[in-house]
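Predict the 3D structure for this chain.
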Amino acid sequence: MSERNVRWGVLGCAGIAVRSVIPGIRASRTGEVAAIASRDAAKAKETAEKLGIPKSYGSYEELLADPEIDAVYIPLPNHLHKPWTIRAAQAGKHVLCEKPIALDAAEAEEMALACREAGVVLAEAFMYRYHPRYDRIKDIIRSGEIGDIRGMHGVFSFNNAGDSKNIRYKAEWGGGSVYDVGCYPISAARYLLGREPIAATANALFSPDHGGVDMMASGLVEFGDGLSLTFDCSMWAAGRNTLEVLGTEGRIEVPHAFVHPPGKGGFIVETRAAGRREEPADDVNQYALQADDFAAVMRGEPQRFAPDDAVANMRVVDAVLKSARERVRVEL
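Done. Predicted structure below.
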């Protein structure tokens, strides 16, 4: 690794990589995209030429063998996260893996162990939490300004049901709305509340026209002492991505909680004592901040969101999916 830049390789030409993560790495202070790989060499070459990436490879193995690559970003379908994370670790590459990090908590633990044994950094790509507004929201909660927290509600939905060949609709590949977007409010609640859930209950619409995956899910995640997250997520509903934190003396509303248009990263605080105010947020690139944080960890700084956090989030995702499939309350 050079003194300044982390040399990134990207395993796959997924839309999230092309549209968001690669531009984010380039906008970061510390990263450069040095190579991209695909199982289709022509596709990799075309993507590299389009984006100005110096090298392209026709296999993931070739990229992992490149000694000039320091870290890899893995945006592959969910069922491929574990094998390619482990192979990357064995090749000595640090790994930023797209969310959800794995198909279940057991896989996530295997990935964390492999990276720990190889001495490389592993992080789950929840870009939203690197935005400074989340630290600000957490500070407001800790200050007591909105009183004791009574609950949280998070939603993340979009409608892509017409795209019948989408990989999100392959159950064996880790498809479904909980994996794709429900993991966000679950992660946010755990982070902002600073504690782990004790149980989960969920109901879901499993669509036979979409590979039997959950196209819509609604859930209750219990944190104990009467405190819960309620959430819904969907790949077959109108688009929303919002978060509300409700306290005894006020509330916090995040209108664009996980992805936000330019200039729309602020949030609202409303209290009984002071009324309503808008908290502006810097117009930052969450993906760039994620890349810079990853680089800092590679250079020895403490990791804010270690692999143990990813394992813990997957335990909740596991419980939510089990509850939806079996129609039972699942204790954690």
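The chain has two domains: 6-126, 129-288+314-331.
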